[in-house]
Amino acid sequence: MLIPQSFIVYPLLTTMAFVAGTADAIAGGGGLITVPALLLAGASPFQALGTDKLQSAIGELSATWHFLRRGGLSLKPLLLPLLLTCTGALLGVLALRSFPLHALEKFIPWLLLGILIYYIFGMRSGLKADESSVPKRGVLPSLGAGIGFYNGFFGPGTGTLWSIALMKWMKLSIHQATMWTKPLNLAANCAALALFVMIGNINYQLAIVMGIGSFAGGKFGASLVLKVSAKRLRLVFVSLMGLSTAAMFIKYYV
Fold first, then answer.
1. For residue 73, is it within any domain?
2. Is the pTM for the entire model greater than 0.90?
3. Contact criterion met (CB below 8 Å) for 119 and 179
């Protein structure tokens, strides 16, 4: 079980969770900050992913509740995708458990780098989708199963994948896509979290501390979604993700 060597770990992780929660509410991808932070704090890959599921679920709950209360989000068109997202997430966790720990440690930095590159270039191409085309509603359940599986198996960058997919295939605006992403991510996180709780790969002490930062960040970010441009925040966010990814390569390859 992860036991921080210094009390300074707590405020640092809480701050990282706040930044991640804020950025996640606006642009997705908060796990690209929090998972490396947990790994650098000394957690094993399995424990980092399990702990991150709990703290990020708290942030997603904050953002989802904000959007529902403001009347900008309806769950009715998301019922089937939510169910398949949960199913995919459960299968993803089961697949993760069969992955050798030493292989996962070497795999994580490359996976982070791939998601970071996709975040930078995929979001840009997603924003250029042809808005005149017809929304492809039939693909949403399939997207739920596929992205849900990725969420359960790894997780960081899931919000970004959802945002890009919803803009590209559902023709939603970036603000609408951001709002739809929250309950979809929340459902998958909760489903995966249930298995992580049963397996025992969660540090509740750190998850609660980070959850406070994530909850505050989710609420703060959600309040900004319809008010300001996210360009400046994305610049800070990408910088943090780049540093985190570099730190992972140093940790597992140097």
1. yes
2. no
3. no
